[in-house]
Amino acid sequence: MNQQIVTRIKCKDCPIRHRAVCSTADETELASMEQIKTYTTHRAGEPILWRGDEIKFVASIVDGVATLGQTLEDGRTQVVGLMLPSDFIGRPGREKSKFDIVASTDVTLCRFERKPFEHLLATTPHISQRLVEIALDELDAARDWMILLGRKTASEKIATFLSMLIKRQHIERIDGMQPRLALPLTREKIADYLALTLETVSRQMTALQRAGVLEFTDRRHFNVLDMDALRRATGDDEPL
Amino acid sequence: MNQQIVTRIKCKDCPIRHRAVCSTADETELASMEQIKTYTTHRAGEPILWRGDEIKFVASIVDGVATLGQTLEDGRTQVVGLMLPSDFIGRPGREKSKFDIVASTDVTLCRFERKPFEHLLATTPHISQRLVEIALDELDAARDWMILLGRKTASEKIATFLSMLIKRQHIERIDGMQPRLALPLTREKIADYLALTLETVSRQMTALQRAGVLEFTDRRHFNVLDMDALRRATGDDEPL
DNA sequence: TTGAAAACTTGATTCAGATCAAGGTTCTTG
DNA sequence: CAAGAACCTTGATCTGAATCAAGTTTTCAA
Fold this sequence. Notes:
The first copy, chain A, has 240 residues and is α+β, with helices and mostly antiparallel strands.
């Protein structure tokens, strides 16, 4: 596991301070977290943790994108989670990872050894409460993804994926400007996340472009031309 | 919502006492839970909570089976969770349900008004710790289901579903006896859970019977004749 | 007890997306 | 900066499961 320890950033200057597992921690609590944290970076494509590995640490994603993946015995794979900045990696109270975690872009982690973190959890209600919220939010997200995997068509899947990226990266339309997005995954990884093939992903993205819904500036960047059309193309009811 | 209040059962005599959200509660804590609980029953087929409804209560399933479901705007449906005895329904801290919850067999719930339960959570670390465990276990289960929905074939889906039923109902093979199982869902609901059609579910079950893996005694009951063959038919790696 | 509805099975046909195939474009690195 | 490797696109064909169809069996209410 190729990784590199980088300079510590002060928690109060941290870009994910207000959204991560530490968001509800007060100054004293933050000080104890600061004690036990380490920053590491992982290059795009490198594994962070394999299925079956001992879970030595938990972490928040500070920057970059990682995938949580599953594999069947014959090699078919499914990405079961997309981890963006402020998301929490690892599971307190579990010895071994059930999933492969792979850096999809260059990733910076704010890492805690598992044992000290578990101690912190047991003694700091603010942090354990935040972790419940995070777990329940992820559970809702996983269940939303289940209807996508089970019942949506290829074009609905692509539209839902792109809408989700826009929503989760907190990208807003600023007076008339159309949102511009970077795809953090290759066509192949998008296919693994949506349960399609890379050919189908490619074709459906081309179709959305031809329909005038969006416009690719290069293979990994696009502008949304018609946000409402994209929303309608997801097949979803209005969100609650 | 047709429901019926039934006689209270004492917590210490409760069949799910050792597995539900109350499992780590001590005697004092159990006493406070006993204060605010109510038992209700729901007939097979009746809704317990619709998507968009205000969440007035949370509950443990004492007996029976309920489904958590999602619907797309054109009516396509996906069951995103199967709730068995000791499972927890509802989400503290959320105002409205994101899912339809429907009794699939007759169901008995041990119910708590949401607000008093949230108070209990905030003041009873044992219960909130247990709720984190439950949420994280459900998250793992949801992610396991994602690879089924995305990448498994129809026959692997059926084999996985039947294996899961055996595992979650804690049915053991007792000296040579083959496990006998009741299907708690109709073919149509199984199809909604596995993202298949009811016709495909029917055909694949017939195929497993013809292959000698299992044997139906009637439409809702079967014996497993070859547990190893069933396990192999799931397509999974060995579990960790 | 019986008639209708619900649940299930089996067969024929269709189709969305997979697979197979052949190139084109953009990175990477020596 | 050249060449190989990744990554992506587009086309032709195939296939697993959906859809359409026609029954049979079971359940349940009147």
